[in-house]
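Q: Got a minute? One more chain.
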Amino acid sequence: MSTPPAITIAGAENAHQSFKDSFSYSSYLRLEQLLAAQQPLTDAHDEVLFITIHHVQEVWMSLIIKELTGAMAKLTAGDFEPAMKMLARVSRAQEQMGAAWEVLKTMTPADYLEFRSAFGKASGFQSWQYRTVEFLLGNRQRYMLKPFAEQPDHLAKLTAIIESPSLYDIALQALAKRGLLSASALRSTFDAVTESNPEVLAAWLTVYRNTAAHWDLYYLAEKLVDVEDNFRRWRFNHVTTVERLIGHKTGSGGTTGVGYLRRALEVVLFPELWQVRTEL
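A: Always. Here it is, folded:
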């Protein structure tokens, strides 16, 4: 039998082979350091899957934090167009985070129990990046700071966020700057979940009833709904994944597990933007 001829892909023959004076793909991305972080504590086959999914979630959250803080800065400056692009990117990243749970769902309860006891009290409840995303979006309560009491740097950063306007607060400030909302309707303290305000609802109704006159505010509102919609989907996928793995057992972080996560599904970040649909 004759040996088939080698197939050459046009252009590949000139690919760089020496990187002594430049980054290579691996060195630029620091792949060795990244992959070295996958350090399972047991020989259980699925522990690497578990670690990988949570690493992926944290990497996406890092990007989401960057885009949210960037969008908030742009909105504060009245620069809407780049803010809309950043919020659209947040939504796409959230979709990727949600899809990651589907991979984790290939693990069965028996698979999970092979390594569950190895990581003790470690829990996503202690993720400072997740808490940062929540705080930026407006889901904030003082008790959420407690798991970070022994991490002064993270505690300081999270405290600063919880005491500053959220993304939605900044959107409402934009309404006030346009004369659609009185300054008295804006919050002066920010360390709690936003409660529905009839005056805020009336302002958004004005925007939605005349989108041509308030297009940028209308577009902002819909981008915010996209973000909350995806945030809810992520949470729902999370709770169903947890229930598939541990049922209604107590979570590793000490919460009631599925019970706690289901109650979290009831939190509404931008209440008037959902209520406006009923009023139109």
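A: The radius of gyration is 23 Å.
Q: Perfect, thanks.
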